[in-house]
Design a protein that fits this description.
heterodimer, A: mainly alpha, 3 domains, 3-stranded antiparallel beta sheet, 16 helices, B: mainly alpha, Cytochrome Bc1 Complex, Chain D, domain 2, 12 helices, globular
Chain lengths: 435, 237
């Protein structure tokens, strides 16, 4: 890949490198006092304004579901919002905070102003900047009433005393300097003015508010740069989720996850039921539906659908490229694996079996720019989400224990080519990496 | 797909099983299709034999299976494939899956021959049938039933399982990687076992033929010798 250039160039690189290291060291030494804001912590028992009414708490509970706060802040099988889950990022693990009103380990000393500042500006009550693994760039879009309702809900939870362990971020990513620098470069408060809207319709604006704000769709469905930053709350062009192996498909491309060619009703159904006439959710999105979007009120689901429907179309050229047919040997292996393990549920001709398995022919998941999601699905299997409309979803068995890398590569390459518009296949070592 | 008479019978069966529960039980063909996500590893209709690693599901007490499904989903039992599969599923659906596998009455495969010294196997048999009072070790049969086929609603059978699986589970209880609701009776028992005893017990249990019929006992003659947190939760609706 890289070729050794002339010696002079290397000398320049070395000098620049040393200078950057020196600058970084100086900055780190001086950094702690930089980018801190006012400490808004309160004494225990200090009044935090009038007691929240039951209505505010109920509204907050609904908003908490839409934001899927529990997805990160509720430990697996543990107390709601007690924190402690480790969120894997390319820079190391980030430990979710305890958001219950415990005064010492939770947010018991946080005033409503501190809470609002945390979600809008990404600052802890003590004034320190928060690690942007928490999608506060999205939450900065929220209006004050929603933030107050969320605060009322948080205060209504039973306090859980559970101290948080330190983040596992690699040096220097967890330093205050690095976070401050990141915020200078990439954090901008989101506004609805930045949303791609074709009209001033109230439902569309509500949809944009939910997609860009609480729904934090861009946390996954965006392209991130080397520093983990995307192009903001309305960056919906899709991208890799490196820590899960999955690709979050583009919402701008109707050949990927774009909803431009679907009716509003069908898109709303996918969010609430996990399936619609055209597709079913799987992988990380199955969890999002299970934990969050199945609870959307019909009007909100339709508002989101309407917003997604009018997004500008942009196709990834990698997804349109046709691949050559697989070589005879892997192709035969792929066909054999397909007949033995896939055809029963997906049909011999890939048209699916009603009540058994979805069709592969014309299935968007097979024609995505990379084969990652198909490989993950074959290896780990997966159920759809249990929802009100589909309480007993269909599930695919995991094949990680039954098939070797070569067999998985062959069958995925075969079905991507045969049923996924001749999309490019996957190599054996790439399958191994996704195990 | 199905004839008119069969459809009628199915409706009748559904009406009968659904009566009184307030929610109709899912048709067994529907559950069989959904259970295919499980049977790749746990064997056709959940009847994995002792020659592999994965445990049999068919015919186990529904309360036990349900408790395990919850434990995998909620992190008390750790196995990445199971956790991933169960994460988007509701309690209700997990209970349906548990009841489906519990309802299957299928024959067992012959046991695996024991590959352990006779003295170790004899020691294992002693522990299974009588325990060791000096070390406050109850007999396996005191909880898992005199025939070791489990007890309704939530104590699993110890027979018909692969040796490697038994070894892994006893080891996980001892090291604390498998955890049940407190008080965690099985963890206490496993921690009182010596490592050699774990190996001997697994070898002996995997080599025993499963009695016919293999159904779990309806109840135990005496109360459980230890408090077990997994029990009351499993019988609660």
């Amino acid at each position: 890949m890289t070729k050794k250039g002339p010696k002079g160039r290397w000398r320049i690189v070395a000098v620049v490198f040393v200078a950057v290291v020196l600058l970084l060291a100086a900055a780190l030494a001086l950094a702690p006092a930089w980018d801190r804001a006012e400490d808004l912590r309160q004494a225990v028992g200090a009044s935090t304004g009038p007691a929240p009414d039951a209505e505010a708490i109920a509204r907050g509970a609904y908003l908490a579901r839409l934001g899927n706060c529990a997805g990160c802040h509720t430990p697996r099988g543990g107390a709601e919002w007690a924190g402690g889950r480790v969120i894997a990022t390319p820079f190391g693990g980030v430990v979710a905070a305890n958001l219950t009103p415990d005064p010492d380990t939770g947010i018991g000393r946080w005033s409503v102003e501190a809470f609002i500042r945390a979600l809008r500006e990404g600052r802890s009550a003590d004034g320190r900047a928060l690690v942007p693994a928490c999608p506060y760039p999205n939450y900065s879009l929220l209006d004050e009433r929603d933030l107050r309702d969320l605060y009322a809900y948080a205060r209504s939870l039973p306090p859980v005393r559970q101290a948080r362990s330190a983040h596992g971020l690699r040096w220097p990513f967890g330093t205050e300097f690095a976070i401050a620098a990141w915020r200078r470069l990439f954090f901008e408060r989101a506004t609805l003015a930045a949303a791609p809207l074709t009209s001033d319709d109230a439902a569309l604006r509500r949809g944009a508010y939910l997609v860009g704000g609480l729904g934090h769709c861009s946390a996954c469905h965006s392209t991130r740069n080397l520093f983990g930053a995307n192009a903001g709350a309305f960056d919906l062009r899709g991208g890799a989720m490196p820590e899960t192996g999955w690709l979050a498909p583009s919402l701008l491309d109707p050949r990927a996850a774009g909803a431009q060619s679907w009716s509003i009703g069908q898109t709303a159904a996918l969010l609430r039921d996990g399936v619609n006439r055209h597709a079913s959710v799987s992988g990380p999105m199955a969890l999002v539906v299970a934990q969050s979007t199945q609870h959307l009120r019909p009007a909100d689901a339709e508002a989101i659908a309407a917003f997604l429907h009018q997004l500008p179309v942009a196709s990834d050229p990698a997804a349109v490229k046709r691949a050559p047919a697989p070589e005879p040997a892997p192709r035969q292996l792929g066909e054999r694996v397909f007949e033995r393990h896939c055809a029963d549920c997906h049909g011999k001709d890939g048209r699916g079996e009603p009540g058994a398995g979805p069709p592969l022919r014309g299935n968007r998941a097979l024609a995505l720019p990379t084969a990652a999601n198909v490989v993950r699905m074959v290896l780990a299997g997966g159920f759809g989400p249990s929802t009100a409309a589909v309480p007993r979803p269909l599930g695919m068995p995991p094949f990680a224990t039954l098939l070797g890398d070569e067999e998985v590569a062959a069958v995925v390459t075969w079905i991507r080519w045969k049923y996924g518009e001749a999309s490019a296949g996957v190599r054996v070592h790439e399958v191994n990496r996704l195990r | 797909m199905i004839g008119r008479l069969q459809a009628l019978l199915l409706c009748l069966a559904l009406a009968l099983t659904g009566a009184g529960t307030g929610q109709a039980a899912p048709a067994s063909s529907e559950m069989a299709q959904r259970a295919k996500a499980c049977t790749g590893c746990h064997g056709e209709r959940g009847r994995a034999a002792p020659d592999g690693y994965y445990p049999r599901l068919a015919g186990k007490p529904a309360g036990y299976l349900y408790e395990q499904l919850l434990a995998f989903r909620d992190g008390r039992r750790r196995y990445a494939l199971m956790a991933h599969l169960l994460e988007p599923l509701s309690d209700r659906f997990l209970r349906d899956l548990a009841e489906y596998f519990a309802s299957l009455d299928l024959p067992y495969a012959p046991p695996q021959p024991a590959a352990a010294p006779a003295a170790a196997l004899e020691r294992a048999r002693q522990l299974v049938e009588h325990g060791d009072e000096a070390r406050r070790l109850p007999a396996c049969s005191a909880c898992h039933g005199a025939r070791l086929t489990g007890v309704q609603p939530a104590v699993p059978a110890l027979l018909g399982l692969p040796r490697d699986y038994l070894n892994a589970q006893l080891g996980a209880w001892r090291s604390g990687t498998r955890v049940a609701r407190a008080p965690d009776c099985m963890a206490e028992v496993a921690r009182r076992l010596a490592a050699e005893e774990v190996g001997a017990l697994s070898a002996w249990l995997a080599s025993q033929p499963v009695p016919v019929p293999a159904h779990p006992a309806a109840n135990l003659p005496k109360p459980l010798p230890l408090d077990c947190g997994g029990q009351p939760a499993a019988v609660a609706p």
